[in-house]
# Entry
Amino acid sequence: MKAHKKNRILRSFGNDHKLSHQSKHLLLELYRCDYQKLNDESFLRCTLNRAAKLAKATVLNLISNKFDPHGVTAIALLAESHISIHTWPESNYSAVDIFTCGQYMLPELASQYLIEALQAEEHYLRVIERNPPAAVVNEMRTVV
Amino acid sequence: MKAHKKNRILRSFGNDHKLSHQSKHLLLELYRCDYQKLNDESFLRCTLNRAAKLAKATVLNLISNKFDPHGVTAIALLAESHISIHTWPESNYSAVDIFTCGQYMLPELASQYLIEALQAEEHYLRVIERNPPAAVVNEMRTVV
# Structure
């Protein structure tokens, strides 16, 4: 699959390791979720797709795997990085990560949506700033 | 794709949020990497596969996307979670995450291999403990 990158605005070409607040990696633990939803591969694929759109991301590919007797992994490859959901329905638990790199991304909306969609009664969210060079921060990957 | 989960050893069935040291999420920034390697989709797919094997993980699916004019994303869906590589060759930078959940995983070996394979002259590694319930920690997903 090919994607085109445009609207490149390179303000710096150096290997400047300046911290960016536009490259976020959200690690989300979801507890006491609904068993059926955590074990429903089709539902999780749709949910992941919807979460990506809420984050203003572009989904380029989406894969999933259903484990036997229970458990699903679904991963969306985004133009702006990725989102993954790993579920353990037997423990009503899901481990999510939402990694977005771009100026206009809204990963927190995706996080909030997933908490509600999987009916998590408890959650634990960590927002981690990744550390790309400045040139990466100021560049948008937009696909056509 | 179907995978079977066996060798389940559930020591606890409760929603115990006990911290596990067997569910690790490594966030790795790679700086001053080799441009050609970061822009070589085939190389990155092979490298990701090799990294997963070093971590003692089972690769169930592997997807990638080549951006135009440069940049690659490659993601491996593992029986034990996932590994992703996102590259910005123009900045000689790659953002990696290695998420493994299991008792016998070696994610640090995968991290060290990727540092060397992409010829990163600098790197920044953060090892984050995820917080699954105890039942998840004590369960192995083994595929047949």
Notes: Residues 12 and 135 of chain B are 5 Å apart (CA to CA). Chain B touches chain A through 54 residues (CB under 8 Å). Confidence is low (pLDDT under 50) at residues 1-20 of chain B. Helices of chain B lie at 35-38, 41-54, 107-117, 134-137.
